[in-house]
Amino acid sequence: MRKKNKGAIRETSGLAKVLIYIPLILLSILIIVLVFWVFMASIKENSEFYRNPWALPEGFYFQNFIDAWESANMGSYMLNSVFVTVVAIFLLVIIALPASYVLARFKCKSSKFWNVLFMAGLFINVNYIVVPIFLMLNDGDKWIYKTFGTTFFMNNLFVLALVYAATALPFTIYLLSGYFKTLARDYEEAAYVDGAGYFRTMVQIIIPMAKPSIVTVILFNFLAFWNEYIISMTLLTKPELKTLPVGLMNLMAAQRSAVQYGKMYAGLVIVMLPTLILYMCVQKKLTQGMTVGGLKG
Prior knowledge:
Strand content: under 5%
Shape: globular
Oligomer: single chain
CATH architecture: Orthogonal Bundle
Mean pLDDT: 83
Number of helices: 13
Helix content: over 70%
C-alpha cells in the first residue's frame, strides 16, 4: 500500500509540475517573441512596415535611434530619468535603512503603532493619491510665490525624486525590517562588547550582512522609478524636465499622426534596454535577497 501511495504522489507531483511549467514556458516564449519583435521593428525603415510589419528587417537602420535621441529629445529625457532615479534611490536607502533597523531591533511603547502604520502604507496605491499630492504641492507653490516671488515644488526634479522615495518607503521598510529580524543578535552583542555604539554596529555589522536584501530593494525600486509615468506627468509640466516614460508617450502620440514607426520603436527600446540589461545581470540577487537568512551554516 505504501508503494502505491508513493507512486500516486509522484504521479500527482509530476502532473502538477507539467501544469505549472507549460503555462510558464508559453508565457516566456510570448514575452521573448514580443521583445524580439520590438527590437527588430526599431531597426526597420518606415517603408518596410507598409510592406509587411511582421517580416525581418532588410538591414540595420540605425537612423531611427539617432532621430529618437536627438529630434525627439529622448537623450534629455533619459538624463532626467537617471537623475530622478539615482536621487530617489539614494534618499530611500538613507531613510529606510535606519528606520527598518530600529523597527526590527528596538522595542518601545509606540513600536507596534509604527509597524502597523508602515504596513498600512503597503495597501495604498500611489496612483490613487496623485491628486492630493499635486494639490498639496501646488498650494505650497502658491504660498512660496506670494512670499518670495518664485516656485519650488512643481517642475522640480529633486521634489519628484523625494515623492518617489516617500511613496516607496512602506514596501522598502517592510522588506528590510523583515530581513533584519532574521539576523542573529549575537553579532550585535559581540559588537557592543567591543565598544561599538548603535550607529557603528548598524553601519559596520548589520548593513554589510544585509547586502542581498538591500540590493533587492534597490533593484525593485529602480524598475519602479524608471518606468513611473503618472506622478512624473502630473508634477512636471515643462517639456525640458520630462522623464523618459513621459517623453516616450509624447513621442508615440506624435508618431500616430506622422506615422514614423521606426522612430517610435527606437524610443521604446531606449526606455526598455536599461531595465532589461540590469535585470539580466542581477536576476539571481532578486530572489537571493528575499530568501537568504542572516546565518549560513
